[in-house]
Design goal:
serine biosynthesis (chains A, B); pyridoxine biosynthesis (chains A, B); aminotransferase (chains A, B); Aspartate Aminotransferase, domain 1; 3-stranded antiparallel beta sheet; cytoplasm (chains A, B); homodimer; 2 domains; Aspartate Aminotransferase, domain 2; alpha/beta; 10 helices
């Protein structure tokens, strides 16, 4: 069977080689004769899996020893609480609200301290990254907070805010491993794995150890969410999502073997340029994000009517192009073109967009 | 390759049929041409998976509509915080401390209210279930709390405490689906899946809706842990562990197809009787749990010296009997004989125990 072109926003397409490798050893992992699913997290065989996954991620991202790496459960949503509970020592965070999940994160943080909205693009329907606050705006705060790529709206920060020395916390769920970045620009970054790093059920968190070594800022922090305790236990304070971490490790190895973040960044820029080029040349499709804020990971556009959008999604699915419906909060079309989505898939989508436009308007682009 | 006899305490052996089925459809799930790992949790195909998993569990356990079912992340450990945050409306819980995880749960609950220890077997090294408190001891409390099976020590409640109308909360991680039970005896029960229900990374929680419909007791409860919000969203407040739930559903179907909880209970009793019989007949092995508190899921025993115990574990592994080392807190030998461990595996273990005893003492039993 031909694999569909999967443009889902997450859980999303995974590298075929990773899946085939996991399938091949599904019943006999590391010569144990058992599935990795059946292997104790305390076994030597599994210890090698989680250690190798962390080492591979450290190499891919260039993570220095002064940063810890955690593989947690509960998704980004649980970290929306975990972050203020760990970091809000002075009780203040500065949030930039560039989309739904940025807003939800700020609302969650406000339950644990003062989450001050320093900038928002909500008035324009989150069609852009808002103008960044001046560094002084972060003075006296525990951290500044951004959602670096806004999956729903298809926008992305193309430069980080200057927080004037205050640590920057970033939800990078949908742009994790999408391009090179300097980990030391962040105090903490975290990502739900189900977009670019692996399956759902794992949240990868990279944190400057100095921010958390004193233990959680708030006494109400559940032990599970105590980053210092989790770091001390190597993400094994309790049984982790063993299979999820195993698959993430394979994805990290795949990224390394495919040229690393430099190559990912070039490929993703090329894929995004193809798609945005089609949108811009078209008379039918209208991009949702202002061009200077466009995401390289999620390309969002609209057709003139919801009926046409449904027809677009349905006819695309009939041609093996799946997962193109926009998020239920906004509708429209969204093509998520994460690392595992190849340029051929994007070319197929552009060809479909051309033929669809021709069929609807009698013109193509 | 012959599958080892896997006596791990969790992640533990899974039914071979479940694994083979998952492997067979690993690259083409429900005719989508994609892996279930790549399938959006919002897709119709995945909706059917999670709905069927819940329906299957409801049938297996006889869960009435007045109880909700959740598939959460973070393991039992995260629920040690989630439970008091949701239920401690009056700020008091009555804990029976029968082992390490019962103690940890009480310590975590004490961070959110008054977690009163009504009974403990710590003075005797958790070798038994302590004498149960009188029903009046639970008066005025939000809930009574037990860990129904103590994985580390190999003990199990053979009758539930009478809480005199106060809801009973039970961590059933290592005896989940092991025998028939009446869900309405509990206000809430929960289980890390990695023993009897599926892979690690899923925590199944069954709760009397009336206890949580008013929302969390404590304002500091993270939204992720808000049971009422999770119930309203069908465990999809955010992206769940999609692959883990998919596998749990297959395990629930396997339990149903293998005779349900009645059959599981009979098989488990037979397996446990075989093993305890061997321990009791032997001069070399000494059971850890007092007989009236013995677990049907985890059989713990000791040899005269740690050196002999290491030799036992190593020689057993050489014969394909793996995962027999006791928990690092207590040492000794532990054979976890969950549902997926067949009676043949237990017979092989007993035969090995006989031959090991013969080789050490010159006598067998």
């Amino acid at each position: 069977m031909v694999r569909p072109r999967n443009f889902s926003a997450g859980p999303a397409q995974m590298p075929e080689d990773v899946l085939l490798s996991a399938q091949a050893e599904f019943m006999d992992f590391a010569g144990t004769g058992m599935s990795v699913l059946e292997t104790s997290h305390r076994s030597a065989a599994y210890r090698r899996v989680i250690d190798a996954a962390e080492a591979s991620l450290r190499e891919v991202m260039g993570i220095p020893d002064s940063y810890g790496v955690l593989f947690l459960q509960g998704g980004a949503t649980l970290e929306f609480a975990g972050i203020p509970m760990n970091l809000m020592r002075r009780g203040r965070a500065g949030h930039i609200v560039s989309g739904h999940f940025a807003k939800v994160a700020a609302e969650e943080a406000a339950r644990y301290g003062s989450a001050e909205i320093l900038a928002t693009s909500e008035p324009t329907g989150f069609d852009r990254i808002p103008d960044l606050p001046a560094p002084e705006a972060f003075a006296g705060m525990d951290y500044g907070y951004i959602c670096q790529n806004n999956t729903i709206y298809g926008t992305m920060f193309h430069g980080l805010p200057d927080c004037g020395g205050t640590p920057l916390v970033a939800d990078v769920s949908s742009c994790f491993l999408s391009f090179p970045l300097d980990v030391t620009d962040y105090g903490l970054l975290f990502a739900g794995a189900q977009k670019n790093a692996g399956p759902s059920g794992v949240c990868v968190l990279v944190v400057d150890r100095s921010l958390v070594e004193a233990g959680p800022a708030l006494g109400v922090c559940p032990t599970y969410l105590d980053y210092s305790a989790q770091l001390a236990k190597g993400s094994m304070l309790n049984t982790p999502n063993t299979f999820g971490i195993y698959l993430c490790g394979k994805v990290f190895d795949w990224v390394r073997g495919t040229g690393g973040l430099e190559a990912m960044g070039e490929r993703n820029a090329e894929k995004a340029a193809l798609l945005y080029g089609a949108v811009d040349r078209s008379d039918l499709y209208r991009g949702c994000a202002v061009p200077s804020s466009r995401s390289v990971a999620n390309v969002t556009f609209r057709l003139p009517t919801p009926e046409l959008e449904r027809e677009f999604v349905d006819r695309a699915a009939g041609q093996g192009l799946v997962g193109l419906a926009g998020h239920r909060l906004v509708g429209g079309i969204r093509a998520s073109i994460y690392n595992a989505v190849g340029i051929d898939a994007v070319r197929d989508l552009v060809a479909f967009m051309e033929s669809f436009e021709l069929s609807v308007t009698g013109r193509s682009f």
